[in-house]
Amino acid sequence: METAQKTTIITAQQQAWIDFCATGGTIITPEGEFKKMSAETLAQELKVVRTTLYNWQKTIPNFWEVVSERRNQIYAGSRMSMIYKAMLQKAVKGDVAAASLLMKQGGILKADKTESKIELHNIDAVLE
After folding, report:
1. Per-residue model confidence as pLDDT tens digits over 43-90
2. Which of 29, 86, 94, 104 has its CB surrounded by the most CB atoms within 10 Å?
3. Residue 94 and residue 83: Cα distance in Å, rounded?
4. How many domains does the chain have?
5. Boundaries of domain holding 35
6. pTM (2 d.p.)
7. Quick one: which H or E segment has residue 21?
8. CA distance 102 to 109
9. Is 115 a domain residue?
């Protein structure tokens, strides 16, 4: 006999609570910025009572695993965004290597095929 798998649909409000938990009490604004707030304030913005937030922790399967996965997604994107902005600032200031890397990443400039070439000198010493 087959057992039906239960699918949990996470609402936009629940996702906001997951994001809040994943970022240690912050929300992500539409502009992509992080804004610190209390759980009470978040509940008010979501138009729910605060206890509803904590009930979701019990009703969403593997809630803390979902939070952990979301934390990895958020901060990976955030770190890459910071790196990209730093490289862009260097490129604007005239750093040719930074400009080249950004252009290659954006597909504007093709990578030099010789970059992946590895030269081995004194191979006998390496093999001993």
Report:
1. 999 999 999 999 999 999 999 999 999 988 887 776 677 777 777 888
2. 104
3. 17
4. 1
5. 12-81
6. 0.56
7. helix 12-22
8. 9
9. no
